[in-house]
């Protein structure tokens, strides 16, 4: 009898960045790298996505994908947002592009680990602040458009082997 080990979110996310150049510069007008994420962007506030900006996308990029995850969640890596097939001429997402009941029109959003489509902000249990990693990936292809409400992990698996470069910014939030 052969048993198959189900890949964890941690395994999949780490495989996306393994051996890939971290050359994309990512910033936010909503919080500083390593700083605290304002309550507005969390489940304790309006639960809307913060602004993001990126630079240094490789010339042969066909699409952009954004991933937001919490590596400190009690259950392991917790995915807060995946949006993919963002056109390459876009280098900024405005505050509130997703979340708070709004779905983005700039790409295709997946179902996050809250079980909702789109952005779900930081919402850690009481205790030590958690880290929230916002990753921008440059892909060499458009990913297949899946049926509505596809799970984040399924799209991340589809992206493997197509990552040209990435960059990230990290914010903290605690309760």
CATH C-level class is: Alpha Beta
Biggest β-sheet: count, sense, barrel?
5 strands, antiparallel
DSSP summary, beta strand count:
8
User: Strand order, biggest sheet?
Assistant: 6-4-3-7-8
Overall average residue pLDDT: 94
Domains counted in the coordinates: how many?
Answer: 1
Structural class: mainly beta
CATH topology: Phosphatidylethanolamine-binding Protein
* Strand content bin: 25-35%
| Multimerization status | single chain
Question: What is the rounded distance between the termini?
Answer: 46 Å
Describe the structure.
- With 175 residues, the protein is mainly beta.
- The chain has one domain (9-165): PEBP-like (Phosphatidylethanolamine-binding Protein), CATH 3.90.280.10.
- The protein has helices at residues 9-17, 152-159; strands spanning 25-27, 52-55, 63-70, 78-86, 92-93, 108-109, 130-139, 163-173.
- It has a 5-stranded antiparallel sheet, covered by helices on one side. Strands 1-2-5 form a 3-stranded antiparallel sheet, with no helix packed on it.
- Helix 1 (9-17) runs parallel beside helix 2.
- The protein is globular and about 40 Å long.
- The N and C termini lie far apart (46 Å).
What key phrases describe this protein's structure?
175 residues, mainly beta, Phosphatidylethanolamine-binding Protein, 5-stranded antiparallel beta sheet, 3-stranded antiparallel beta sheet, 28% strand, globular
